[in-house]
Amino acid sequence: xxxxxxxxxxxxCTFPGFSLDVDITLPGTGISALFGHSGCGKTTLLRxxxxxxxxxxSMTVLGEPWQTETFVRPVHKRPLAYVxxxxxxxPHLNVRRNLxxxxxxxxxxxxxxxxxxxxxxxxxxxxxxxxxxxxSGGERQRVAIARAxxxxxxxxxxxxxxxxxxxxxxxxxxxxxxxxxDTLAIPIIYVSHxxxxxxxxADHIVMLEEGRVVAQGPLRETLAGIDNPFRxxxxxxxxxxxxxxxxxxxxxxxxxxxxxxxxxxRCEHRVKPGDRVRVRVLARDVSLALSExxxxxxxxxxxxxxxxxxxxxxxxxxxxxxxxxxxxxxSRLTSRAVAQLGLEPGMNVWLQIKSVAVIG
Length: 360
Fold this sequence. Notes:
The chain is of the alpha+beta class.
């Protein structure tokens, strides 16, 4: 990647009891996630990037300097939009007028996103005459995102936009965010502590702990890295991308093909053959066998090769990284099982994955 196609940020700042020291390079397309536990510095870093937090360092967006050692571009002159946890809609304006507030301030010749595009992308066609007080949490956040887009930013920053929503509202809004991922040319930096959100939306990930970057890179490879600092968590696992090739309506299953194999999935959402989807396979849900054994309840048996073994990531627990074709998958086993099976890098094994465990 060249400097004109990346977002580069380097910041150092110290607060009572906390310091931030980061150096990151993000792709200038798609969604990049800032990920980590609460208090790790995600929002502080995002505010530094926006210019809302003063900190020594530098910031370059697609080849354009926003901050150097001698120059800091004021916030109001940075072509960015910021979506907060709270929507901050104008309560006295209906949805249409909330959306028009920023849109009308952009000269017509500088508008990169049309009004009707943002409305359609966020599914707001039937809400334009409604007042914010009558909207659900998910609907208000969709309005806030559309309003941000209508300022035609070169960079969209989103600070845990789903954290204030209940589970139903989160599930309602995620498909709209996925649509933005597929259609929007503007790079997005997305702060979250939710593995589910990151796995569904992001292309690139930066993992933070105590104000430091502990891992960064393309999402699929980073999540499946055996040295992933979050590998001991219960939701650690691998991300698979592929295509639905068959539906079994009788058993409510869908056959998903990825580069390296195929899996039967629970069919909870409306999908059809040909759809491109992402699924997560958690390390805790992958067991290994030395031979193919179809005389069992597990529906998914995938041949793979052991790539690496990290022993004792926790007392008595080992992590095995495998390759199904070129696709990395993680398996979390007891260290006793690793020893009893004689598992070693380079061995051919069979992945055993329950269909009910695969997360679509």
